[in-house]
Amino acid sequence: MGSKAVSSQPRKVRKRQLYRAPLHIKSKQLVAPLAEELRKEHGIRRVRIRTGDTVLIVRGSFKGHEGKVVKVLVKKGRIFVEGATRVRSDGREIYISIHPSKVVVTKLDLSDESRTKILQRRSSRIKEVAAK
What we know:
The structure is a single chain. The chain has a single domain, classed as SH3 type barrels (Roll). It is α+β, with helices and mostly antiparallel strands. It has helices at residues 10-19, 23-28, 36-42, 113-131, and strands at residues 31-33, 46-48, 54-57, 66-73, 78-87, 93-98, 103-107.
């Protein structure tokens, strides 16, 4: 047989997803669910997080905090939200890294033309599948 079997051991699955995955795959894992109003408006459930989006943190010690995404780390699979900070022992304030699945996108940054094209393409594709 020529096909390779992929292991389902949890240890190996974690390695495949988190550590060994190439950046173009890790980038696809940086998605967060949309708020109800945006879901109805755009017709999609989740979207790739970008810098400039406004998110609501729904899990963790910053639960209920809403702020703009300041930075996205594709390599580590984390985002930084404005206002979600802690003070270091030397007095500096640093951002807390947050997993994208623990936030809900409340406002999209549509200043980039390619982002609107992506949203239109995805919503039309979902409508086609629903029609079948």
